[in-house]
Amino acid sequence: MKAFKYFIFAFFVFVGTLLHVRADENCSYKDQAALNKEASNVKKSYEFINDDPLNRHFMIYITNITDNLRLEITNDYLDKQKLEVTSADMQNGVYTIETDIASRKVTYTINIYSKSDKCYNQKLLTTRVVTPRYNEYSTSYICEQVPDFKYCGEFYDTSKLTYSEFLKKGEEYKLKNAKEEEVEKKGFFASILAFLNKYKWYIIGGVLLAAAITFTVIFIHKKRLEKRGLV
């Protein structure tokens, strides 16, 4: 009985090998190159949807899936989830994956296979989409006060930072910024005072010269008016 089972198993393996070899023989270099080009033209992108604080999520868009291609999509968050996608699954030229995973970074692996009869089931390309982890701290009051604080980035990974640690770092950054601004202000006024002190005699001389010229012009103008009897 065991020998019969082994015989059946070996028979199917042999047939499968023959079919695979025949498929490889039918798949010419030209066919392979054309399919590789189609696979490389598959485009993917994602969009973060943040309309509802209770339902933050990502939309993944895949386009340019031709009739010759089949996609297998997995992710490193839900190991058992595998999507089989063909051109028939697209709507208006786009295949869309809606995911509610925003609390951690997720890598989506897209394996692209041939559906062409000549090169059936040959793996053509592997590509990936990585959706980042949403930073819940980015809406904190600290981020409103110091929006350039690095831990306030919408997708900055703060997974190893507790909220109390985040607030502490934020307050420290705020204090550091305030001190730097104070130093800048003092430096600005100090530079003005230094300039005035360095060139004070030139400035005083210039002011006196301007005053003298103004006085002379007024004096001459008044004398002319007196000569004309207008004063």
Features:
5 helices; elongated; 4-stranded antiparallel beta sheet; Immunoglobulin-like; disordered N terminus; alpha+beta; 231 residues; 3-stranded antiparallel beta sheet; 21% strand
Q: Mind explaining what this structure looks like?
A:
The protein has 231 residues and is an alpha+beta fold. The protein has three domains: 2-134, Sandwich (Immunoglobulin-like); 138-192, no CATH class; 199-227. The chain has five helices and seven strands, in the order ααβββββββααα. The chain has a four-stranded antiparallel beta sheet with strand order 4-3-6-7, with helices on one face. The N and C termini lie far apart (140 Å).
In a nutshell, what does this entry contain?
The protein is of the alpha+beta class and 231 residues long. 46% of the residues lie in helices and 21% in strands.
Span between N and C termini?
140 Å
The side-by-side strand order for the widest beta sheet comes to 4-3-6-7
**What global shape is seen?**
elongated
Number of domains: 3
Task: Record the SSE blueprint.
Elements: H1 2-26, H2 29-40, E1 43-49, E2 57-63, E3 69-75, E4 82-85, E5 94-99, E6 106-114, E7 123-131, H3 141-145, H4 163-198, H5 200-227
